[in-house]
Amino acid sequence: MPERRYRLDQKRGRLVLGSVEIPVPRSRTGRIATGTALIGGGFLGFLPILGFWMLPLGLLVLSHDLPAVRRRRRKMAVWWSRRKASPRSSRKP
Known about the structure:
globular
């Protein structure tokens, strides 16, 4: 089975994003606070340093602990993979 490129490695307490690993809190409360802070910072993405990149990262962290966020993230991943796999009928050569 191929290893997922984007995941939360709970054993090591790291968020794996391809080849980049970011440490995250091991406690559930810490992860929820971190995910919420990332989403809050993402809404302020028009400011310097903060960015809209924080929204999906926050949702990824929250999806580890909150089933509602996990379901929505999974639906989005399935939709995205189907979208990439299907040929575009609207394109003309």
